[in-house]
């Protein structure tokens, strides 16, 4: 039996699975996103992020499992789901030979907006996206950042309650990415649940909750702070005191060290729990670095992710369920 609708969630997935022949693209995925929450979906290319989004949007039918968006079963009523959500795909659905206003007007028609509601929606979204004054520019002449904001404005004309963004900032410069995220925060502030896939770890820090996807499985789930403090497999030591290149050469092959690398003005060692600070300090002293200091480091999200999927890490992991 599918679970009863969880009223505190805008979308829920339980044991959501998609197979293509013998290939399992998404494997028993569990997650929940609340209204006003920005959920970041992280993973390398081919991890199953886009497939998951297409299932949740009602575009692709799951092989098994259950998902609902705003209390609507995505398998049974996909068209109802599509009416209540916004979706920006990796390939933008814009018409390059139409102007900004014409693109927005087209999507207003798709969403059956008429009269005053249509006029108000166009004005509001052009203002939000910073497109005022560019209404008559052809979409094909816009910069990448403006095109992405036009696509976002088109996706929220009808005031959706859930917004799906599939790697929306790929190829954008840092300023354009920041401007795009400013808009995402505005939308979440209005109570919209935002589901955004990305492989940029700095963007992950901007999300309220994160899910790490690898090989179709959810291998970690929680807030950025939780993941940094609790999801790391092994221990991370930071060594300072001397040339980083020489320190790296001296410490990279320590027994129990999974990897070693330069991090700013230090060397970081990701190691098994059996390798202690005293072990690292003794090794540094033995190599002539008597003044080297060794401290436990707080990992970045990238370091957490690598610890979970690296060659030494155990594979898979149970997908957490929304509480």
Q: How is the secondary structure organized here?
A:
Elements (H helix, E strand, L loop, with lengths): L10 E10 L2 E11 L4 E5 L6 H8 L7 E6 L2 E2 L4 H7 E4 L11 H11 L4 H14 L15 H12 L6 E5 L7 H16 L3 E6 L2 H4 L4 E6 L2 E6 L1 H8 L3 E6 L3 H8 L5 E7 L2 E6 L5 H10 L6 E4 L4 H9 L14
Parallel strand pairs: 3-8, 3-9, 6-7, 7-8
Antiparallel strand pairs: 1-2, 1-4, 4-5, 9-10, 11-13, 11-14, 12-13
What would your notes on this structure say?
The protein is of the alpha/beta class and 323 residues long. It folds into two domains: 11-228, P-loop containing nucleotide triphosphate hydrolases (Rossmann fold); 233-298, Alpha-Beta Plaits (2-Layer Sandwich). The chain has helices at residues 49-56, 78-84, 100-110, 115-128, 144-155, 174-189, 201-204, 224-231, 244-251, 277-286, 301-309; strands at residues 11-20, 23-33, 38-42, 64-69, 72-73, 85-88, 162-166, 193-198, 209-214, 217-222, 235-240, 257-263, 266-271, 293-296. α3 packs parallel to α5.
User: Pairing-aware structural class of the strands and helices?
Assistant: alpha/beta
Question: How many beta-strand runs?
Answer: 14
Q: How much is the average pLDDT?
A: 92
Distance between the termini: 18 Å
As a whole number of angstroms, the C-alpha radius of gyration is 23 Å
Instruction: Summarize the amount of helix as a percent range.
Output: 25-40%
Count of the domains: 2
CATH class of the largest domain: Alpha Beta
Sketch the major β-sheet.
6 strands, mixed
Give the name of the CATH superfamily of the largest domain.
P-loop containing nucleotide triphosphate hydrolases
Strand order of the largest sheet: 6-7-8-3-9-10
Task: Tally the helices.
Answer: 11
Outline, from the CA principal axes? elongated
DSSP strand (E) fraction?
Answer: 25-35%
Find the CATH topology of the largest domain. Rossmann fold
Low-pLDDT segments, ≥5 res: 1-5, 313-323
The succession of helices and strands, N to C, reads EEEHEEHEHHHEHEHEEHEHEEHEH
For the record, the CATH architecture of the largest domain stands as 3-Layer(aba) Sandwich
